[in-house]
Structure formats: structure tokens, C-alpha cells
């Protein structure tokens, strides 16, 4: 039986996130949408920063879901996502990524709740 996991956090381009100065959560909340989109189609490594500041690097499969999830999120920085992963061949692989719009509530006192935009790769 294969494992299944759901992770949630701030989406970051790992290289530029690590180069930034500041506390982990502050850097993740300020990580701009443009940096995430600049890595699409390249050998960019993406990761999630959890609310406690820990960084979780994502597998290479996550890259194909980044553009859709980032473009679906209305915020210019601090893009929160939920990532669904399953085990294949002893390794975890991303199979879906959904944007979480909870940041507007935390940062501006806006409408509560989460908006979901699923982005799944097509099975050919």
C-alpha cells in the first residue's frame, strides 16, 4: 500500500529563498510571485515553508503544478498552497497543488475562508 500525504505552506523558489535575509516565516510571506513564475520551465527547486518556519523541499514533479497554482492566487507575495503527494517506487511524488487564499484573512482582515483551485497534470 502506498503512502499518501497532504502538505500546506508558503510556496518558495528554494535558491532565492535561501539567499534572502530574515526570519524564515517573514521571508516566505514576502516571497514574490514573480520569483516563483521565473523558475517555471527551468531546473528550479521549489519548497514549502511551514507556519513554524521549517522548509520542506518538494520533488521535481511539483514544478509542473507551480504555474497554475501561482497564477490562480491573487496575492503578489506569500503564496500559500496545499500539495498532495503519493509514494511511487519508494519516493514521494507531487500529484496535485491547490492554492490557499487564507493569507488575505491573516494579513488584511479580509473575508475568511479558503479558495481552492486544483491543478492536476493531464494523464495522456
Give a verbal description of the structure.
The protein has helices at residues 14-19, 24-30, 33-38, 63-72, 103-108; strands spanning 4-13, 46-49, 55-57, 80-88, 91-100, 118-119. Strands 3-2-1-4-5-6 form a 6-stranded antiparallel β-sheet, sandwiched between helices. The chain is an alpha+beta fold. Strand 4 (80-88) and strand 5 (91-100) form a beta hairpin. The protein contains 5 helices and 6 strands; from the N terminus they run E-H-H-H-E-E-H-E-E-H-E.
List keywords for this structure.
single chain, alpha+beta, six-stranded antiparallel β-sheet, 5 helices
How is this fold's topology laid out?
Layout lengths: L3 E10 H6 L4 H7 L2 H6 L7 E4 L5 E3 L5 H10 L7 E9 L2 E10 L2 H6 L9 E2 L5
Antiparallel strand pairs: 1-2, 1-4, 2-3, 4-5, 5-6
